[in-house]
Amino acid sequence: MPGPSVTFLGGVREIGGNKILIEDGPERILFDFGPSFSPRYDEFYLNYLKPRSTSPVKDLLEFDLIPRVPGLYSREALHGADLKHEAPKIDAVFLTHAHFDHAGYLEFIDPDIPVYLGADTKVLLEAIEGSGTNGYGQHPWKLLSPDAPVELGNLEVVPHPVDHSIPGAYAYLVRTSSGTVAYTGDFRKHGPRAELTERFLERTAKEQPEVLITEGTRLGPDPRKNFTEQTVRSEVDSLLERTTDLVLGTCYPRDIDRITTLYEAAQTAGRSFVVSLKTAFLLTAVAGQPGFPPVPVPGQSPDLLVYGRPKRRYYHWEEPFLSGAVDADYVRSNGKRLFLMLEMMHFPELIDLRPPKGSPFVYSMSEPFSEEDLEAEVLQNWLDHFELRKHSLHASGHCSETELLAIAHHLKPTTTYPIHTEHPDEFHPKGTLVVSPKLGVPYPIGTP
Ligand SMILES: [Zn+2]
Predict the structure, then answer these.
(1) Which of 19, 329, 330, 355 is the least crowded, having the fewest Cβ atoms under 10 Å away?
(2) Which pLDDT belongs to residue 370?
(3) Which tens digit of pLDDT belongs to each residue from 211-251?
(4) How far is the CA of 99 from the centre of ligand 1 (A)?
């Protein structure tokens, strides 16, 4: 029997798309299973040009955009594909967190394969499914307890909570028959739950890992400012203080920490915070759930309003928030007392909102990685047309390159694999051998 190994089936030279296979004897487990947003994906699929829902795996395999793993996919997802359905050959999937690039392809996985995840991540997946954004399929869901090891034959998986831009993120220590693999998932050291990351790193150092699989989102050229959540808060505070007009903003729809930060800033400034129907649904779904920080709750928290975007038909899940929702007329007349969140896909609302010229627009998301980002260009066109002033105020969900260098140096694994990065070759920590992994190649763990 060959010794334990790790194979990267995604997340190689790309940000997102993590799919990591760890094998030890007969045991085979996967960590994360998200779609790739690599340039290669964009060569064939774009916006509404998507794989067909009737034959998703076939349409992705055509361009090698999903791994050809026997005994992984459901019969339904494999419809039409030349990869035939087989009884599961994967023992389990472990999810690090609920972001789409880590969890988005769970729906293709055989419904007999158990999926391990944090209770809070499960709540988030249900909330995302509940608002019709994505589906994750039916699986035997296994809820993890922080630090409680899960034994699967030769492998023992220990989940450790870490800080990331979504609650409920886990990193994993995977004990194999030739040493421990530490997998960071996505993580940061400067968010509201930074002490969780510190704790994970302390435990990992004690474990003297053989292998470190680290995310490297911010490796290489990183022109963005490294704000903490507190810096975002104080910058927004001062912006609100010096503004008398309507304030607009946008952030990642699932960044619950940021939504809460901006809400609190609005409250301090004596403004009401106005969220979309989708955000209202998400906040209601996670409010009071174990593991979640306190969040503003529509209909309960003061100074919180919901923007009822006009639609021909509302979804069932939107209906509870429509009574009392405000419209463009309300925002136009009360702009001085409001901080309105507006997702880019709802920008046509600006045509009715007619914000006063020069109104600030808080862009609370990461700046695009490339200068030819079409979305960034369109966003700027809208801001220019309405003469809105963009203020980029964001705390990243990811560790900086300097932090990652210090982490790898401190943990001193024999081998480090940077993934979830476009620049794996630019990572040179001291005291560890860095290997920029190749897609689909099994790398042995430890010395056999
Ligand atoms: Zn993430």
Answers:
(1) 329
(2) 63
(3) 999 999 999 887 667 788 999 999 999 999 999 999 999 99
(4) 5
Q: What is the DSSP string of 282-345?
A: HHHHHTT-TTPPP---TTTSTTEEEB----SS--TTTGGGTTT-B-HHHHHHHGGGEEEE--GG
Output the domain CATH number for residue 182: 3.60.15.10
CA of 91 to the centre of ligand 1 (A): 24
199 CB neighbour count, 10 Å cutoff: 16
The Cα–Cα gap between 400 and 59 comes to 36
Do residues 12 and 66 both lie within one domain?
yes
Query: Is 407 found in the same domain as 298?
Result: no
Structure tokens at 112: 């007999």
Structure tokens at 326: 């405000």
3-class secondary structure, 147: coil
Region 413-422: what's the mean pLDDT? 96
Last-in-domain residue among 350, 376, 392: 392
As residues whose CB is below 5 A from the ion ligand 1, the structure lists 99, 186
Q: What is the pLDDT of residues 61-105, one digit of tens each?
A: 999 999 999 999 999 999 999 999 999 999 999 999 999 999 999
Q: What is the pLDDT of residues 320-378, one digit of tens each?
A: 999 999 999 999 999 999 999 999 999 999 999 999 999 999 999 987 766 667 888 99
Question: Ligand 1 centre from 186 Cα, in Å?
Answer: 5
pLDDT of res. 73: 98
Cα 238 to ligand 1 centroid, rounded to whole Å: 29
CB atoms within 10 A of CB 74: 20
For the chain, what is the domain count? 2
